[in-house]
Design a protein that fits this description.
This protein is α+β, with helices and mostly antiparallel strands. It has helices at residues 69-73, 96-103, 108-117, 139-148, 166-175; strands spanning 14-17, 29-33, 38-44, 51-54, 79-87, 120-130, 156-157, 180-185, 195-203. A five-stranded mixed sheet has the order 4-3-5-6-7. A four-stranded mixed sheet has the order 1-9-8-2. The protein starts with 13 loop residues before the first strand and ends in a 5-residue tail after the last strand. Residues 113-203 form the ATP-dependent DNA ligase family profile domain.
Length: 208
């Protein structure tokens, strides 16, 4: 891809729902928090702007103006990042209900008020373009690239991933009040728009 070319709009890679990997292969995966947020692909053209596309390809940038800080955190080169938007409740846990309230707002004045009443956070967990496509790289290399960017701000973060055993990640997320984990195969490439067992959504059977 030539320098200055706009990266293509890619659909996000999707997980299957299933049980944790068997003990004999669980070390082949990393384990990330299951956020149950609003999936977005963040496009940063390197000119100080940000474009957020929903899982269905809709431009939702105007609904989340506070997330423009991501462009300041990564002023260049061109990048495309994968993550989820969440809204926290009074106890600091992701709230689907509060997120749905925020997602329903479109009028600029309503969105402006919601920045204070229903603030969002962007949890970034993959990188699919950084000056050039990175989808062909294994998960471990993509995570290293993402971690090296040190993207951290009031509304933006890169959550940590757990190594095996899977049960440790499940115990931690259960205690912290999250819905489960996503197991991601360490050697897996990023497959835009595909649902594959390289990513497995593992939900807790019950909440504490």
């Amino acid at each position: 891809m030539q320098a200055g070319t706009v990266p293509p709009a890619l659909a996000p890679m999707l997980p299957v729902i299933g049980p944790a990997p068997r003990p004999e292969i669980e070390a082949e995966y990393a384990y990330e928090t299951l956020w149950n947020g609003a999936r977005v692909i963040a496009h940063l053209p390197g000119d100080g702007s940000l474009r957020l596309l929903s899982q269905t390809g809709l431009d939702v940038t105007a609904q989340y103006p506070e997330l423009k800080e991501l462009a300041a955190l990564l002023p260049g080169p061109q990048a495309v990042l994968d993550g989820e938007i969440i809204t926290l409740d009074s106890e600091g846990q992701p709230s689907v209900e509060r997120l749905q309230q925020r997602m329903s707002l479109h009028h600029p004045e309503a969105v402006s008020h919601a920045i204070e009443d229903l603030p969002v956070q962007l949890m970034l967990y993959d990188i699919i373009y950084l000056g050039e496509p990175t989808v062909q790289l294994p998960y471990t290399a993509r995570r290293d690239l993402l971690d090296d960017l040190a993207l951290a701000g009031p509304g933006v973060s890169v959550p940590a991933a757990w190594p095996a055993p899977a049960e440790l990640a499940l115990q931690e997320t259960r205690l912290e009040g999250y819905d489960g984990v996503v197991a991601k195969r360490l050697a897996s490439q990023y497959l835009p728009g595909r649902r594959t067992r390289d990513w497995i959504k593992i939900k807790h059977l019950s909440r504490r």
